Amino acid sequence: MGTTLDQARLRAQLARLASTPAERLDARPELPAAQALAARALSSRAADGLLRPLLGALLCDPELTTSSRIGDLVLRDFARGGLCLPAGGAASVPRALADGLPPGTVRTGVRVLSVAANAVVTRDHGTIRCRAVLIATGARDAAELLPGLRVPDFHPVTVLHHAVEGPAPTDEPLLLLDADRRGPVAYTAVTSAVDPSRARPGRALVTSVVLGAAASEPAGVLDRAARAQLAGLYGVPTGRWELLAVHHDPLAVPATPAPHDPRRPVRVLYGLYVCGDHRDTADAQGALRSARRAADAVRRDFGIRRYAQGPALRAAA
After folding, report:
1. Peptide bond between residue 237 and the one before it cis (omega within 30 degrees of 0)
2. Buried b (16+ CB within 10 A) or exposed e, 55-77
3. Element at 125 (helix H, strand E)
4. Cα–Cα–Cα angle for 288, 290, 294, nearest 5°?
5. Are the beta carbons of 186 and 210 closer than 8 angstroms?
6. CB 132 within 8 Å of CB 298
């Protein structure tokens, strides 16, 4: 972390970033995030000891090829609100959204073969007629339904989940970063310390994330290398930890190198729309912003009045 002065400068920079309007960040010169980081008034120890691994973790891009404007935005969000996990796991978010809709609104397990502005052709459920279609998927699936849609490069991510019998390595809700890159894990956390529902009584759940080229290594290789690294990070033996699952996604995060347009069009034509993290910034907030833009486009095209209250909005939908 460097000297006390380095730490004070870092805290001051994050505080300024937290209070800077997003419009001002968008007006800054656009560089690869690594170059922009090197230009900050920080010692190499402070930059490499915390800011670089933190930014790489937030962007899922350890080489920091991402646009510096996006890097500034994610650091701003971090400085303003820290990090969080959805209670019950990531699947709880779409469930909560679906629970707010009228019964029967959401269908699952339906394979879509093609779309048009007024119809969706499915594999086993025939053709569903409609007034408009909004494709809310990852970039590659969206391009299969909309030929000609740009498909970006991707940052791969592998997530390892270990169960620990007995006391947790730490009871603190901490994100541990390995600035020295002593192994494949970019960051790790005792997830059950944040959300106790994710582990059975008497056990703890440790979640570790591998980024970059190492994410494509075989699961067994990653597990062995990660255990040695995690033993050093947590200061406890890891040989008896149980590997619960390894999730590898080669298309986890769309790459957004400079120059990057964070407001890619969401309206293909009247009645046909697309949204997702590939239309904005490559994170959950970007996906939500693009969805809001797509919803506004649908509303404008069909003359739907914007309702302020939730029940009225559900009724209109």
Report:
1. no
2. bbbbbbbbebbbbbbbbbbbbbb
3. none
4. 115
5. yes
6. yes
Amino acid occupying residue 19: S
Q: Taking the CA atoms of 163, 164, 168 and 169 in sequence, report the sign of the dihedral they define.
A: negative
Length of the chain: 317
Q: Residue 313 pLDDT more than 80?
A: no
**Structural tokens at position 277:** 């993290």
Residue 109 burial (10 A CB sphere; 0-12, 13-18, 19+): exposed
Residue 29 DSSP class? P
Sign of the Cα torsion 83, 33, 143, 313 reads positive
**Dihedral angle, C-alpha 248, 261, 257, 59, nearest 10 °:** -50
pTM: 0.87
Q: For 55-184, list the strands marked E by DSSP.
A: 112-116, 119-122, 127-129, 133-136, 154-165, 176-177
Distance, in Å, from the CA atom of 67 to the CA atom of 258, rounded to the nearest integer, reads: 4
Please tell me the distance from the alpha carbon of residue 239 to that of residue 6, in angstroms, as a whole number.
37
pLDDT computed for residue 193 by the predictor: 94
Give the other-Cβ count within 10 Å of 241's Cβ.
Answer: 21
Q: Which two tokens stand for residue 278?
A: 């590939």
Q: What pLDDT is recorded for position 308? A: 52
Alpha helices per DSSP H over the chain: 4-18, 22-26, 33-38, 44-46, 52-59, 68-81, 92-99, 139-145, 191-194, 219-234, 284-302, 310-316
pLDDT surpassing 80 at residue 1 = no
pLDDT band per the 50, 70, 90 thresholds, residue 51: confident
Mean pLDDT for 242-255 is: 96
